[in-house]
Each structure stands twice: as C-alpha cells, then as structure tokens.
Design brief:
It is built from 18 helices and 16 strands. By secondary structure, the chain is of the alpha/beta class. The strands form 4 sheets. Strands 13-12-9-16-14-15 form a 6-stranded mixed sheet, sandwiched between helices. Strands 2-3-1-4 form a 4-stranded antiparallel sheet, sandwiched between helices. Strand 2 (288-296) and strand 3 form a beta hairpin. The longest helix has 24 residues, at 10-33.
Length: 561
C-alpha cells in the first residue's frame, strides 16, 4: 500500500478504483444474497462490481496514455515509481465517471455511476478535504435527481447520510477525517434501512445497494488512510414486524418476488440532447418503474423496469441514438446454448502468446493477460462462450483475478453453462491443473483433481526492481532481480541465473518431483538449458519441463510439484 495521499490526486483515484473493485469482489456474493429490493433478483453485488470494473478500466487507460501502464500503485515491484509521468487528477476522475457511466449495470450500478459522476464534477477542480466533502454532497444530490421516484431506505439514503456526516466536520479537517466520517455516517444509515423500507425489515436484511456504497466508501477510507475500516454487518438481528400495508411517502410498492413487478429490465446508453432526455423520462416513467437516467453532456445511461421492453427501446430511439441495449427478463429460465456443445472445456488466463499456443494445443481456450492490462470479466465470459461447452473449468492463474473470474462464472451460468473456478494463483499452477484435466470423468471429480494438482504446486517468479524499496528479504535497489516465492520476496540477486538457482534451491529443499520453468519473451533459450542442467545435477530424481511464452516484464516463472 502506498503512502496515504495529502490530496485526492490521480494516483489516489487509481488506488481507490482498485481497492473498491477488490472489496466488491470479496463482498459480491454476500451483497447479491441480501438483494430484495426493488427486485429480488440477487445481482446487486455483481452489478456494482461490473460498474466499478468499467470505471477502473477507464482510469487505467488514462494512465496508459501517459506512459504509466504498470499495475495500480499498490502492486509491488512493478508499480509506478516516484516522479513517473501521469495524468492530472481531473483526467483521472473524469475517466472514472465516464467508465462507470458506460459500464453501469442494474439499478444500484446506475445510481453508483451518477454518484461517481457527481463526485468527479467537484474533484476535477481540487482534491483537498473541502473538495472531497463537497464532492460527496454534490454526488448525493445528483443521484437523487437521477431517480424518478426516490425511495428512502436505499442507497440514496445512505449516500445522503454519508454526505451530511462529512459536511458536519469542523473546517480544516483532513482527507482522512472526511472519508472516515462519510463511511461512519453511511454505515449508521445502512443499519437503519430495514426500519425505513418495510420489505427489508420483513426480510431481516439491510439494503443491498446501500451495503455496496458502504463498501465503496470503506475503500475510500483505505485509500486516504492506508487502513481498511471495521467490517459492517449486512443483516439486522431480527426481521422487523410487517408494515401496515401502505408504503411510506416516496416509496414504491414492495415486491416479494420478481414476478410481482414489471417483467423486463431495460438498460441502454443514449446519445441525446438534454431536452430530449427530459421528455424521455416522462415517457418511460409512464411505462414502468425503477427509472434512473444518469449522465449528461450528450451521453446518458438509461435504466427502467417495464412490461413492454420494445416500447422502452422505441422511446430511446425517438429521443436520440440508443446503443449497448440490454434487456433482461426477470423470470426467465436459464437455458442451454441452442447448438450442441462439447461436454467440457478449460479456460485459462496466460501471460504470453507462446504459452497460450501450448495450452490451446492441449485443448484449452486462453485469454491473454497483457502487462498492466488484466482481462475484464466480460473477456472471460466471451472466452467461456467461445469454448462452446456444457461445462467449463476456469483457471484465473492470478490471485488478483479470482474475483473477476467469479463474476465471469456467475454471468456464464446465466447462459446455462456449468462453470467452476479453480483458484489458481499463478500460471504454473494452471499448467499443473490442465495436465490432469480429464473430460471423461465427472465434472466434480475433474474439478477436485485439478484443484489438488494446483494446490500441490508451489510457485515463484523473478522480477526486476524498478526502484529502491523495502521488501521481506531486505532493501532492494533499482535493477536488482527479485525472487518471489508464493507471492513474497524471498531472494534479492544481481542477475537472473544466479537468483533463479537460489530460488530453486529454496523451493526444492522441501522436496519436489517436477520443476516447470516458463521463460519470458526477452530471455534467451540458454537460460532454460542452464537451469535444467542445474536441477539435474543438484537435485536427483527431479524432472524439469521448460516452456517459452511468459510476458516480457517477468524473466522467469517457476513451479515445483
């Protein structure tokens, strides 16, 4: 984790996006599970994750255009160093808002996009504590205006409470105080949501969208303080008594099941003038409910629940140019793909095209992870579909991509595909899992065998230090070769061959039968020959397999089974 910022600059925006995505990845399934309003379709956590995933991708793209396309600032040896060129804060927050707008999913995701857009409008002019406080207030107001019929006890209530708590601080309070106050105010309001929205009280849960916003604000606290806030419980102790039958002021009627309301969720991006959007709001409001229209400056994201999906799209056509149209039937049964698929396939993420080719020869479908460009969940979903199989085993091969893989698996299941994620943390674990894959046995047995093979494989990698830094193995200097074993720096060396030998000795000291070496694109083949000979001479009865095809930023990947 980098030093907490004094101002909310571009690096802070980038860090916030990354921490938020990670936090929502951890919380996604739990938030989905408490999603009972406005439709109990169990996807609020997933929708928030996908919205922030789009926001982070847009921020990373801005950094890439400025020549800083390394991973986010908390990523370790390959992260952006001090003094590296980068975008301004205004560019970063606008990219965040735009990415959220074009990638917003569901009711809560669309509202979150407007919250981020509202914050960006203020933070683009400054990143001190006063600007952050005013950004939260502007965001809460903008989100309420975007919703046709605001309902209390939802994400809107939580956003308003966060803004009020931040605004109540004395003048001169710092970024950390503002972020902590907003998070605390949001958490307090979240706990009260079951008493403000009867459907939540009857279910005995807090609002899912509000829970997601507390998670987002928790990541904000971690960004500006370096420490994550205390966990906020998702459920109230006991369900509240049923309401008297009449909804509170401003509420729409409670729903107990997806079939109780409109049949379809319609979402699309719309290019239109503001006057046309005002008329569109009136027309869509008459067609259905849960209407949220966010955006501005000619680009809008439209979300509505209706019975006549065609009419909702037609209204968009009359207002401007709708695109990225998504229509979801709330009660639709999950069906298998129309054509006869293969029984089972494996999809895995690889760091280089050469290794991808080898895996494809083994029958797998691969997704390329470029340096600083981790694949998004949508890319993994397309790869699962491209496998054209009834059953798919997904290997993320990176601890940082496990939540992305989980979201992709959930989305693919909507297509009727059975998907299991084996939590591989490195590509050498993925290779080990792929080696024992057997389509002829049952799906569960295959997943267990692949998981066991991956778990029995220790992994290491060599990386080049970009700057002086403290590590678990001591102080490294720029240009040093770092040997990371199971994710931690264990060796600091002067050259690749010597560091690799030391790493191999440490890993094989605990035993091993097979060493897998994956050479980076810029590493000569002689390195593989040298290390293979070294293992043969120093560690009897240990076999070595050498592959080429890692990405250029990592000289060597090592696996020991």
């Amino acid at each position: 984790m980098p030093q907490p910022p004094d101002v909310f600059d571009a690096v802070a925006v980038r860090t916030w996006c990354s921490l938020t995505l990670e936090a929502l990845g951890r919380e996604r399934a739990a938030i989905d599970a408490i999603n009972v309003y406005p439709v109990p379709d169990g996807d609020t956590g997933t929708n928030l994750f996908l919205t922030v995933e789009s926001a982070r991708a847009a921020v990373e793209a801005v950094f890439a255009t400025h020549g800083t396309d390394a991973a986010a600032p908390d990523a370790g040896p390959g992260s952006m160093g001090p003094g590296a060129p980068g975008p301004g804060a205004a560019d970063a927050v606008r990219a965040m808002a735009h990415g959220a707008l074009i990638g917003a999913r569901g009711n809560s995701g669309t509202i979150l996009a407007q919250l981020l857009r509202g914050m960006a409008a203020v933070l683009a002019d400054g990143g001190d504590a006063d600007h952050l406080s005013r950004a939260l207030a502007h965001a809460a107001t903008a989100a309420r205006r975007a919703v046709a019929h605001p309902v209390e006890g939802t994400i809107l209530t939580v956003a308003t409470a966060a803004a009020r708590a931040a605004g109540a601080l004395a003048a001169g309070s710092g970024l950390a105080a503002v972020a902590r106050a907003a998070h605390a105010g949001a958490a307090e309001a979240l706990a009260e949501t079951p008493g403000r929205l009867p459907v939540l009280g009857r279910a005995g849960v807090v609002d899912a969208g509000g829970q997601g916003l507390v998670t987002v604000l928790g990541a904000l606290v971690e960004t500006v303080t370096g420490q994550a806030p205390a966990h906020v419980p998702r459920q109230v102790p006991q369900p509240l008594p049923p309401a008297d039958g009449s909804p509170a002021a401003g509420e729409c009627e409670d729903r107990a099941a997806p079939g109780d309301g409109p049949a379809f969720e319609v979402i699309y991006l719309l290019e239109a003038e503001e006057a046309a959007v005002d008329l569109l709001r009136q027309r869509l409001d008459a067609l259905g409910d849960s209407l949220v229209v966010v955006g501005g400056d000619g680009l809008w994201n439209v979300h509505v629940h209706v019975d006549d999906a065609g009419a909702a799209v037609e209204a968009g056509v009359e207002a401007g140019r709708p695109h990225r149209i998504r229509i979801t039937h709330f009660g639709a049964a999950r069906t298998a793909p129309p054509t006869e698929p293969a029984p089972r396939s494996v999809v895995l993420i690889v760091p280089g095209e050469g290794l991808g080719g080898l895996c494809e020869e083994a029958g797998a479908v691969t997704v390329l992870a470029r340096p600083g460009r981790p694949p998004a969940s949508g890319e993994l979903v397309e790869a699962v579909r491209r496998a054209h199989a009834r059953e798919v085993v997904l290997l993320p091969n990176d601890a940082g991509l496990r939540h992305v893989a989980a979201v992709a698996a959930e989305r693919a299941r909507d297509d009727g595909i059975r998907v299991a994620v084996v939590p591989t943390r490195a590509v050498v674990q993925g290779i080990a899992a792929l080696a024992v894959h057997e389509p002829g046995r049952s799906f569960d047995e295959d997943v267990v065998a692949m998981t066991a093979a991956a778990g029995a494989t220790r992994y290491a990698e060599l990386a080049v230090a970009e700057r002086q830094s403290w590590t678990t193995a001591g102080i490294c200097q720029a240009g040093d070769i770092l040997g990371l074993i199971d994710g931690d720096v264990a060796v600091i060396g002067a050259d690749v061959p010597g560091t690799a030998r030391t790493v191999l000795d440490r890993m094989l000291a605990a035993g091993g039968e097979l060493v897998t070496l994956v050479l980076g694109e810029d590493v000569p083949d002689t390195l593989g020959d040298t290390l293979e000979a070294y293992v043969r001479e120093r560690h009897l009865a240990v076999d070595t397999t050498v592959y080429r095809g890692g990405h250029p930023g990592t000289p060597l990947l090592i696996g020991v089974e």
